[in-house]
């Protein structure tokens, strides 16, 4: 996917690029190398640990390349970039996956490989909604919609029925419980293919908890205002997008 990101963005020396979901800065390091010392790499993340780790990695791997790391959600791009006094941006990258620093701490509840409290909050200091509340209080219809839309889970209805049945017996409080429920809701034959059976459901709940589930279209007005190169009369079709599951690249045409 990294090669596809770089090919789509077509960055050059002096470009300004914004990684709207910074995470571990894997993509940002490569993008920073392309924009060079005359460009600017912007990184947005709502997780303090991710910001700290990403800053250290950028300083270590691309020293001399200017970068600004901003705490917040990509839904707040207008406010974040205005506060950073950034006049325009040449390209944006959105990645809705979870970063490895978050997975490395089992107690945060992001991983289906570790038994831990159901949390999944990227910014626990400001977000009161956690995964346990979503799983234990949302109605069956809404849970099925979340799993189907945000996780592309084909067995969403079956998993949701199992969630409702189990929570009537006792609260669902740990990732281990949730994994067992997911497995019970997926036919045995389907569980043998396509990776870990809990992957899609965990993704869906994480997105719901962190309010990162809005599709790209509502962001377009903000991105168009912030674009350094998109003319006022340029149609939205001039934007090139590459979408793969939970990742979207929004590439603004470079000035001639």
Structural summary, described in words:
With 256 residues, this protein is of the alpha/beta class. Helices cover 43% and strands 12% of the residues. It contains 12 helices and 6 strands. It has helices spanning 2-9, 26-35, 48-61, 77-83, 100-103, 131-137, 140-151, 156-169, 175-185, 188-191, 199-209, 220-226, and strands spanning 16-19, 40-45, 67-71, 91-95, 240-244, 247-251. A 6-stranded mixed beta sheet has the order 3-2-1-4-6-5, covered by helices on one side. Strand 1 (16-19), helix 2 (26-35) and strand 2 (40-45) form a beta-alpha-beta unit. The longest helix has 14 residues, at 48-61. Residues 213-217 and 229-256 have low confidence and may be disordered.
Ordered list of secondary-structure elements with their pairings:
Elements: H1 2-9, E1 16-19, H2 26-35, E2 40-45, H3 48-61, E3 67-71, H4 77-83, E4 91-95, H5 100-103, H6 131-137, H7 140-151, H8 156-169, H9 175-185, H10 188-191, H11 199-209, H12 220-226, E5 240-244, E6 247-251
Parallel strand pairs: 1-2, 1-4, 2-3
Antiparallel strand pairs: 4-6, 5-6
Helix pairs in contact: 2-3, 7-8, 7-11, 8-9
Strand tally is 6
Hey, roughly how much beta strand do the residues contain?
5-15%
Percent of residues in helical segments? 40-55%
Identify the overall geometry.
Answer: elongated
Distance between the termini: 27 Å
SSE order, as H and E?
Answer: HEHEHEHEHHHHHHHHEE
Based on secondary structure, the structural category is alpha/beta
Radius of gyration: 20 Å
């Amino acid at each position: 996917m990294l090669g596809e990101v770089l090919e789509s963005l077509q960055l050059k020396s002096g470009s300004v690029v914004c990684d709207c979901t910074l995470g571990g800065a894997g993509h940002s390091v490569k993008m920073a190398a392309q924009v060079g010392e005359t460009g600017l790499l912007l990184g947005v993340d709502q997780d303090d640990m991710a910001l700290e780790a990403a800053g250290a990695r950028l300083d270590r791997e691309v020293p001399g390349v200017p970068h600004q790391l901003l705490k917040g959600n990509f839904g707040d791009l207008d406010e974040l970039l205005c506060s950073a006094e950034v006049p325009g941006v040449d390209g944006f990258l959105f990645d809705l996956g979870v970063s490895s620093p978050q997975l490395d701490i089992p107690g945060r509840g992001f991983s289906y490989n570790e038994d831990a409290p159901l949390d999944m909050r990227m910014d626990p200091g400001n977000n009161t909604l956690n995964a346990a509340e979503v799983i234990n209080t949302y109605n069956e219809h809404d849970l099925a919609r979340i799993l189907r839309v945000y996780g592309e889970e084909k067995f969403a209805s079956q998993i949701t029925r199992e969630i409702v049945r189990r929570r009537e017996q006792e609260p669902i409080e740990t990732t281990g419980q949730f994994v067992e429920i997911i497995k019970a809701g997926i036919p045995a034959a389907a569980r043998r293919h396509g990776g870990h059976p809990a992957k899609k459901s965990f993704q869906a709940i994480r997105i719901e908890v962190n309010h990162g589930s809005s599709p790209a279209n509502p962001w377009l007005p903000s991105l168009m205002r912030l674009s350094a190169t998109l003319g006022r009369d340029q149609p939205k079709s001039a934007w090139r997008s590459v979408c793969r599951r939970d990742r979207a690249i929004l590439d603004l045409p470079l000035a001639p």
